[in-house]
Amino acid sequence: MQSDKDTGLLGMVGRLAQGDPESHITMHQIIDEVEESGFGMILFVLTLPAFIPIPVGGALSGPLVALLALQMIVGRHEPWLPKRLLSKGPKRSALAKVHAQLSRIFRPVHRLIRPRADWIFENSITFRFTGLILLFLAVLLALPIPGTNYLFGLTLVLFALAMIERDGGLMIVSWCVGLALIIAAFVLSGQIIDAFNAIKDNASDVLHRIFV
Question: What is the SS3 assignment for 71?
Answer without folding.
Answer: helix
